[in-house]
Amino acid sequence: MMVSKHPPIPFNAPSVEGRELDHIRTAIEEGKTASGGPFAARVASLLEEESGAAGALLTTSCTDALEMTSLLLDLHPGDTVIVPSFTFVSSALAYVRAGARIVYCDIEPATLGLDPRHVAELLDDSVRAVVVVHYAGVACDMDGLREVLRDRPDVTVIEDNAHGLFGRWRGQPLGSLGRFATLSFHDTKNFTCGEGGALLVNNPDDLPRSWVVYDKGTDRQAFLRGMIDKYSWRDIGSSFGLSDVLAAYLYGQLEQSEIIQAKRRAVYERYTLALAPHADELDFQLPVVPDHCEPAYHLFHMLLSDHDTRTRVMDDLRREGIHTTFHYVPLHSSDAGRKYAARDDDCPVTDDLSGRLLRLPFYNNLTEGETDRVVDALVRSLKDTSAKD
Ligand SMILES: *Cc1c(COP(=O)(O)O)cnc(C)c1O
């Protein structure tokens, strides 16, 4: 086995980018560590300013924020939610917990976002919501989706925007395109506090009830804002709030948003520039960014010719200390995915692309020397592969 003389290149490496540690210390020293503290307020203002949302509610995860949307929709058994099969489990899990069944939608091969033509085929009276994912931080086909839903104002659009903070579609922020949007601050995302998330509430009419669901079904948030003089149990809900220690961490990251996004963009562009000349010869496809989309630079993926090539490439790179990975295992073919499906639907594009999609190491401080090493190793491996064919 060839042993690399270089230090390993991990797939992801979260980093301290600004005043995170100072802020965490402040939160603890000032004794405001529960949810709804001063750092949460600052983060919420930043997120509201960026997205134009009526409210940004910090949650313990994106999964939690999705569960909030599920409670806010008052789903009943018999209801269904359309979810792309090519996404993380949480996009479906949140609705299953409320008793709904999932209708799996295929993706279109350019953006890997849901395919509106398939949504049109799947729409029936049971559908209460459609979840969209802006894969890698590039908007899905929102024009197509809006056209399909034109006569269905009763169907709520929810953006699982875990990848898309600071991305744009036709100049509008990702996260502002649905009635609700959710964000993730897990340590695999562009901005992190370890574990965290947010619910963006885009319609001000949804805000009062969102705050109740957020705070254990009580109107305590209205009480804390001085809007009422005592609080009590009003509705369903749970304990969704993020500790202010973590909000402090997150605030330190978001203060550096321009720098972080510029670093990620630079990594993305280095990969693109170095790989593009080899795409035809070595039979792979780089990410597609439609003209009207500004990416959020969440990840760098490429489509290889087939599944076996991907397996070989990942093994080759691992031997050189370079950690690449695939992505979602299609939900429609997973055990629980099948169990909670409304019916049996095929998602052939998802099946095909998920088997040959490769993600390269991608994080803020990945150096030029490191991206060069990744590209060299990748090109060598693919040349070996085509030589063997
Ligand atoms: C990361 C991710 C989630 C889950 O986020 P958590 O904050 O870990 O709950 C959900 N959906 C998508 C598309 C994700 O990438």
Radius of gyration: 22 Å
Question: What oligomeric state is this?
Answer: single chain
Task: State the secondary-structure class.
Answer: alpha/beta
List the strand order in the largest sheet: 1-9-8-5-4-2-3
Mean pLDDT: 96
Count of individual beta strands: 12
- Run of helices and strands: HHEHEHEHEHEEEEEHHHHHEEHHHEH
| End-to-end CA span | 22 Å
Coarse morphology? globular
- Major sheet, described briefly? 7 strands, mixed
Strand residue percentage: 5-15%
Helix share of residues?
25-40%
Number of helices: 15
Bound molecules: pyridoxal-5'-phosphate
Q: Report low-confidence residues grouped into runs of 5 or more.
A: none
SSE arrangement:
Elements: H1 20-29, H2 38-51, E1 55-59, H3 62-72, E2 80-84, H4 90-96, E3 101-105, H5 116-122, E4 127-133, H6 142-148, E5 156-160, E6 168-169, E7 172-173, E8 180-184, E9 197-201, H7 207-214, H8 220-224, H9 244-254, H10 257-275, H11 279-282, E10 293-294, E11 301-303, H12 307-319, H13 335-339, H14 348-354, E12 357-359, H15 368-388
Parallel strand pairs: 2-3, 2-4, 4-5, 5-8
Antiparallel strand pairs: 1-9, 6-7, 6-10, 8-9, 11-12
Helix pairs in contact: 1-9, 2-9, 3-4, 5-6, 10-15, 12-15
